[in-house]
Amino acid sequence: MKPGRLSALALSVSLALSCGIAHAQEAPLLAARLQTQPTASGEANAAVLVRNAARPGRDHIVATAALGGLEIYDLAGKRIGTTASGEVAALDVAYDVPLGNRSATVVAAIDTTTNRLRLFGMDDSRLSEIGARALPLGFAAEGICLYRNPLDSALYAFIVGDGGEVDQQILYSTPDGKLDARQMRRINVPSPLKQCAADSKHVFASEEGVGLWRFNADPEADVSATIVDAPRLGHIEEESGGVAVYDGVGTQWLIASDTSAGQVNVYDRANKDAFLGAFKVAAPGGTGAIKEPGPLFATGAAHGSSFPHGLLLVADEDGSNYKALSMDDIAAALKLEIGDKAAEGGPAGSKAVAVTALVETAPANSYGDAADDPAIWANPTDPSKSLVIATDKKAGMYVYDMQGKVVQFLPDGKMNNVDLREDFELGGKKVVLVTASNRTDKSIAIYRLDTEKRELVNVADGVQPTGLGDPYGLCMYRSANDQRTYVFINGDDTRKRQWELVAGANGRVKAKLVRDMNFDSQTEGCVADDASGALYVNEEDVGLWRMSAEPDGGDAKTIVQKIADNPAVKDDYEGLGIYDLGDGRGYLVVSSQGNDTYAVYRREGKQEYLGSFAVVADPLRGIDGISETDGLEITSRNLGPGFEHGAMIAQDGRNVMPVENQNYKYVPWDSIAKALGLEMRGN
Predict the structure, then answer these.
(1) Can you tell me the distance from the alpha carbon of 292 to that of 278, in angstroms, rounded to the nearest whole number?
(2) Domain count, the chain
(3) Are residues 592 and 511 in the same domain?
(4) Which residues pair with 81 in a beta bridge?
(5) Is the pTM of this model over 0.85?
(6) Domain holding 609: CATH number?
(7) How do residues 116-135 score in pLDDT, each as one tens digit?
(8) Residue 18: what pLDDT?
């Protein structure tokens, strides 16, 4: 996701709107079960309820009080303490946050006096600052919400601003037990945002005068911005204010302040955010509705007999306080049900394990979808000097070292996929032969890798045409039968072609066409197993195929697994690599691009699926995760410190933390192996 403003006209907008005229039926009036004392400053903006796991029944409401900082109330609404924190505009809470050798309840707040993010730990009724440093925001912030990534439990803060900013930062523990933050990405909408709230998948934000937005919360996912509701089109009269998410027992609601109408709307997150109804808010025992319900906070946790299924906090600017409504009262008024059992989870075993990258390359120079596919050369005498050769499909070829620095760039055309084989006989010497699919002239690019000078040298005997309209998928094969070397390339149709690479007396290499293969739909990723003579091909929307890599192998193929048969993966299947354990044993690793994970299959035997992993952010190193992977490569050879048992090197389609051009990430195999219980090859 690149920074820039989102236009409602430019998006594929999906409105969760019901037919009929909004607010045609008068919303019921609900009396709060409790309210806090007015703030000492006479101003109220936002509040959260903080659970006390150590002392049940000692929960507290933490609320903003303008220049009065943060105020703390008991569940009778009595103010029992204050914490100086500047002028706080918004806050949110997260639990069990790792902090050194302990875990903490964290309250994150926006201080508008210094325009920064402030982080507090809460112990019983006391707040103490735990930020590692000052965290300036660089824009006028209005709201904050915290998001827990279900994949690795990483904690993120979304900060929304007066200029339409949606700033996502990862919060993480420093070695000395403080809490720090790094920016992951920035999204923009055209006008001011008031508040946000996050569930396990999405962040919801209220844009004044425009409506409610929904974005993907995972920083490695596509933003997928969608309007949930909008003034004049749906169930918001004019201006949306607060927003909250409620997760009860089998119930998933989105709750939003329809500020201009003086009411609160409820939507069904489990049913495409469909509108469920609206209600107005009164003080306990009151008969008049508050005029402009403001920021909201919801929890599904039980809090005594008044709130058996949780509560909703509503900021009342006119009353200078906060009102708490029972979720049971809301459900009864809107004729809704709060389920008796939790919603069923996903398929057993479908969750991917999380690993992190150790190194990332410098970003590609080309903008947009540019980086695509890597190949790995392991230096046998000095593994730390191994090299990664990778493509920029808009410009040429990169050579990177094991620290991710550019060693060479060749502006030779739109190179899509790349592969290599060692010990190719050329000019009386054994060389590392590298091939790539060149989309500029629709040819096979052929190089030798000068391992001393650490650079690619063109050895193609002139342009080697592919006969394909748009060549891109590519892999190489060395036959164990006769030691001949081949290259496979597919185009934008259903053909895959095989050429023998033939050395000439002039020290150049030609490609001789030896086979055409056909598939039913688009293919790209492929890898050849030199030991077994098998060619593995990803048919993007179908699955992983195995067939003969020999030139006389024909079209016969066997499915390893269909995508439709595995709930843990999602099309497209893209990059593909082999981890070699020796003796024909090892693993196949496939990029499941549709859900940003990597599926692992056994190389030998029945080739069963063994599990999936995802690459997530490492905030201490400042390396983000990997998403939307096109190409990858795997090796079990020693690549130097940190990669003694090999690595997966993969293209990162969304390079964030901060947002930059695409690049490649280096993931140690031992991290993958330990996470999934796989073997490692000793080196």
Answers:
(1) 14
(2) 2
(3) yes
(4) 72
(5) yes
(6) 2.120.10.30
(7) 999 999 998 999 999 999 99
(8) 40
